[in-house]
Batch of 2 targets.
Target 1
Amino acid sequence: MVCLWKLRNSQLVSKLVLGIFFIFLTFTTVATTVNQSLYIIADSLLTVDSAKVPYLTFNDSPTYSQSNPIINLMVGDTLDLWVYNTDNSTHDFLIKGISVVQSIPANDSVFLQVIFSTTGSYIYYDPSDFPKNTYLGLAGMIVVRNHNHASFYWNIKEHNSDWNTQLFNGNTVNWNQYDPKYFTINSVSNPNINGDTLARVTGKVGDTLYLYITNTGLSIHSMHFHGYHATIKYSSKNATHVGREKDTFPIYPMETVVLQIVPDKEGEFPIHDHNLVAVMGNNIYPNGMFTTILITP
Amino acid sequence: MRKLLFIFGFFGMVISSVAQQMTTTNIFSKMDMGPQHVLWDGTNTMLMGFTSLMMTPIDIPGPTLVYTEGDSVELKLRNMSQSASHTIHLHGLDVDQWNDGVPHLSFEVGHNETESYYFKAPHPGTYLYHCHVTSSLHVQAGMYGMLIIKPQNANETWDGGFTFDKEYAWMTSEIDTIWHTDSIINAPHDTTTIMRILPDYNPQYFFVNGRAEYQLSDTNVAAITSKANEIVLLRLANIGYFGNRLIFPTQLNAKIISSDGRPLPNVESSDTLEILPGERYQVLLQPTIEFTDSISVDYFNLNTQNIANIQMIPLNVSGFVSVDEVFGSQVTIYPNPVKDKLFFSNFTEKFTIHDVRGKSIIQGNVSSTNSSIDVSKLSKGIYFIKTNKRTTKFIKN
């Protein structure tokens, strides 16, 4: 009897051990450590009409790019992040809602290690003298996924070139009179947005597509989809809006939203800001926040 | 065999012609020859817009297009604008690319041309239509209107949705008169490029259904009149370039039920609703007492979030819904409001009681020998009794 109990028990224990091992194996094979470096570099934003506007960005190498990198993680991943300040003034660094503010003197660096346990879209930025440094370009996106579906990423923003010049020259501006002239997705405007494979939504009929959006500008944007409704899967501002199926999505400053699109037909359809001032660039239509989704059979 | 094939073919053609029966709507795109549209303060301005008849003057918004879910629709656009090409974008209807009204991805309709848009009326709800040629300009110029899809039961929000007694539709927009000057609105149409230089946007006029200030007191424009215990469906759409913030008096018990033509997964009770450009919402208003007040609409700048204008829409809830009004004189239910038992006279039918969300609560039969329904276990609120012939509202206290 005792032997039988022991035998049964040992079978149970071995099943339990096997189960734990399987779960351990599952998590250890999915969760990884992602090493990322960000370099704060001052340079300029090349606008749709070829103007050069003073600008600051985080870059994933010491070479300047006018678009902040998108840091792409899976749930459970650990982010090992070095942030280097190559600018000649002090900057701060913060992952909104995740980390604490860290100050980075000129030509210095900081290290952060963060484990991301929930899906969503997060903003990393320089909160010092807010909104000045964020407005000047120091704001990017961390995406945490729990799926391997095709995903696309928009860091949406607006710019007033005169203000950038004023702020770079150490002057102040009246934020209450903000009047942007350029409207960008990942730092470019129409028609260049469709050339950005991270931004341009493409897929096939029946695919499940994800669009991760952060608004790192100061304006509210109202993004309208032609052709398809999308479902809100995550909203940092309005958690109760998750599950809503819509064709027009307000995205407030410093808000992040995750949308899911399952196209039911083929075609090329616009996605654009329905504040139709924002589909212009320096008062030229249609050089603003306008792109297209391309769905093939 | 040939006879059989002929019979099948004949019936096939009949069935197919019935199935393909189409609702055709004619719409004209036009431009004012000068500043002839009179704004609330007497200022004249120039519009581009849509009309349902050739000789009708342009107004904003354009004609409201109403269809029933499942309708096959031909929307025939005749462009009489003298200059610019136009299109109709069916905003939110998710039509195919060819019928989506985006000129460089489908077609545009030149002056003196007629083209048709075809679609099947989708989910019941509140939608928009507008021109998508140089959209920043043509929408501001006035080329927009509301499009409503109703379910088969026109007193429901959607099949199995909320029942309502009356409805209002408000479309918000703005005008910057600089954009409506002849040199901007009537610039020669350039067929070689879609690019266009436009002025800064600083609107001076803020509208609900193309009207403002004292004009909103007109019940044919926007003002709401209702009775206590009536359920009012408010359809809202923002085609302007500012945000709107609506503030409802708490006595209206406003419930946000759908957006962009889809029911919300969770109904939201709120006295405040923000509607951004291109969005639509449907709100149920359920006053239970008599009162007079206003619904305010803030117009806020999307860059600064500063409020640029406020419009007040008068609201008058007067009287109570009486039983006879909803039943007809031959049928009576009593008492209403009811606490325990609801009695009937002159009524012998199967019935279903459902709540305001359309959920079936009680089913049964009423006859001369069984002329009451026990409703004591129902929570307090508004309910409906549905029969084959009618839907009747009662209040449980």
Note: Chain A has a mean pLDDT of 93.
Target 2
Amino acid sequence: MIAVRDLRVRFGHTEAVRGVSFGVPRGGSFGLVGESGSGKSTVLRAIAGLIHDWTGRIELDGEPVAARRPKAFFRRVQMVFQDPYGSLHPRQTVDRALSEPLIVHGIGDVQSRVVRALADVSLPASARFRYPHQLSGGQRQRVAIARALITGPQVLLLDEPTSALDVSVQAEVLNLLTDLQREHGLTYVLVSHNLAVVAHLCDRVGVMQAAAVVEELSAADLRAGRAAHPHTAELRRLSLELEEPEPVAQT
Amino acid sequence: MLRIRNLTVSFRTPTGISHAVREVSLSVGREKVGIVGESGSGKSLTARAALRLLPPGAILEAEELSFDGTDVLRARESDMRRIRGGRAGLILQDPKFSLNPVMTAGAQIAEAWRAHRGGTRRQAAHAAVDLLAQVRIRHPAHVADHYPHELSGGMGQRVMIAMMLAPGPDLLIADEPTSALDATVQADILRLIDDLVSRRSMGLVLISHDLPLVSHFCDRVLVMYAGRIVEELAARDLAHAKHPYTRALLTCLPSLTHDQPRLPVMQRDPAWAEA
């Protein structure tokens, strides 16, 4: 569904992405992990068309995408950002935020689509005429996901979608993403620094360091510790040491 | 060292009084105590109340709130200034916002050192370089000449810690000290704090939303929910947590070793917010 070949992005004299390649089948999930500055978000932004100055090849469904994306591209590929407070307009209601992509793409039936989009992400109908500041962090992220889904895309680009959320809300949003993927046959590209989140949602994982993918492996291999690259092993060791929840004894 | 009995922090709102912290009691000696909770649980307000650093409009009430024998509730502002930074250091989440952008790292540390210890500029500058070495910065004299924007996040946090250590405090309060940092840097900074606290036999209050992380570095963990401490336990007993909220905080985390198709969702019980 998505194929990236030898993607390079340069900001001035720094190479932010140095020849990254990976592919994601339809309905699959690919995760990019790495530390800040490793280039993982830049890869996602280049796919989304938010960065114009890249070289290499990005294919959507077998077709190479143009440097300037046509409007139809954004109907098929949508992005969800880390901080829903920053990605929703503070003076626009949820209704407006959800209607706008429909108007932009000339999709009719706005009313019923907005209502259905809210139901899809398990938000109450009463949230429709609220402003972002009247919602909790988890509700805001649901609105951002609803907005991304409302044009009926095939690919969702997720940039740290749960990093700003409390762990209990993170669990709800991760479950929601799992359900939506199954119901709509979505393809995900997920960027996160949290290995457990990536392994939970993705089948395959690319580990980035210093602007390059140093290793690509399956989530099962990552879980089992079958990592070939020392950076992958280091990230895994830290995740296990500091973030792994202790199994809770049954009572 | 720090003694809090029945602390309540509340705010007046158009719809009445809202209690952000309710009847919290804790005492901290020369040990490592973690306070864990989700956003809005009152964990940061509890720590800030100890230094009387509450936002304007906050109403602070307690049966006892004392630091090393000083009554924080009634202390004069000048006495509080000696405690803040002097006896108790506060490390915040993002060094980008807590460092002065127009002063070099060395000058800021030297300023903190002189404010609490006096001495000449030259002595303070030497002390600053020495402190930067203590927080394991490799070229301390070189880094001292850098401005905050020239430093990485981890480096900035080391400078913050060096500044907090300058007056030789008895207690370190760290409010989400590593949430803005990468995993590798996070581990380094927490080990550094851990090591400094042990070597100088200080007390540590580590505030975080991250229960596994806190239990890794602390002796004792307090779990807060809706302004109350709902459970207090030794870090090594985490797996045997009794309160359903503490248990849910652990079970709703995705695990790297165990694959589960769906994560358990926290079923909040209104009774948790009751006393």
Note: The first strand of chain A starts at residue 2 and ends at 11.
